[in-house]
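User: Can you predict the 3D structure for this chain?
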Amino acid sequence: MTDAQMLQPDLKKRFLLKAGIGATALQPLLSFQLQAAAAQVVDPVWAGAEQILQDLKRTSFPDRDFVITTFGAKKNQRCDQALAAAIEACHQAGGGRVVVPEGLWSTGPVHLKSNVNLHLQKNAVLSFVTEPKAYLPLVFTRWEGVELMGFSPLVYAYKQQNIAITGEGILEGNASGDNWWPWKGVWKHTPWQLDPATDQKAGRDQLFAMAEAGVPVEQRILDNNRLRPPFIQPYACERVLIEGVTIRNSPFWLINPVLCKDVVIRAVNCVSHGPNSDGCDPESCQRVLIENCLFDTGDDCIALKSGRNADGRRLATPVQQVLIQDCLMKSGHGGVVIGSEISGGAKQIFARRCRMSSPDLERGLRIKTNSVRGGLIEQVAVDDIEIGEVKDAIVINFYYEEGDAGQFLPQVKDLSISNFRVRKAQRAFEIRGLPRAGISGISMTDVSFEQASLGVLDNASDFKLSNVKLNGKTWTGPS
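Assistant: Here is the predicted structure, written as structure tokens:
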């Protein structure tokens, strides 16, 4: 029964009590009232979120297990071959679970295949080695929004369907100040010895130059590759589930689906405080659900992306139809973030019922791009967000990194923020549009900043405000 149908008896009773109204006269009145009630129940702004839940295609696996010990795995030893054999057997049999039992299991990269659910039982720890040569041969991957032949992600799948990582176990990346992370080079207080021979800068610059020059991806092999691999990267896959596991100490981004469709990330704990330890970064994906997750990270908690500069425009695939709900954000550069590699655009993005707070949380809602990266960001809705402590609550920055140095003007359209409550922030806003590409038309309803300075509002205008309060007083928008 629909909400409108449940309301119908009350509506009939109300109108029949009015003298002189018969059944014929009642019908048009009743129809009008039912339509109004239905309109109240289904907020048009959020209809797209419900559509995502309806359209999302889910994973499904046969009820059979392939336990890695059956294939020769032994605790506290490398189990690469056993894992690969179990995955292959599961795949060839038509699917099921590859089970990692309780205990510590050491491995190099794990490559998933269609219809395989990698399941980590409670108290199972799948511990990844840190020798870079273990992540060879090179695979087709994406790094900071640019495709290349690079190190294998720790868990990787390429053009597979119906795959999963589930269970109550731990995926341990073992990245630290002694391995992987020092390749970042200078970072914050830089708690490692700088070494030009292992600094990522030369390889990063070479990769970006190759992309701008249009070098085919298969030829993008770096002279000195020090680009750290992401932890989990399904690439061009369909129907992906990551559920229940804890992911720790990643070399780079933790969960990074690229060009995937129908992705569910549920009840995952992302805990990593290294450089570029983004929690979950879907890139150029369609239909993504991220729910009931914990993020305690060294970079953005969730960052939606769609490729960098020429490479993002070459693929021209936006990140779209994304629903984020019921998540908890602690430390991080941003809670819910769009960008910065956003050249392919973003649309139909929804975030609701999220809680954020930490002295180390730098931003709540964050959009970051510039005129080199560009990108059209549209149809974004945020509702029921509680922020305890944060540096900047709402950030839209068109001057990120390169600033206004290109010809691809970024644009933000149809951004709706409602029921957004901030207890303590240094600044309510950092909104910085370009003189030639301002930021306007943002809708805010029932938004409050209990303790915060106004912050920065440059080239920002025409906000649509209803019940917006700053330090207990009504705020009427940019002057």
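The helical segments are 3-16, 23-41, 47-55, 80-92, 201-212, 309-315. The chain has six helices and 32 strands.
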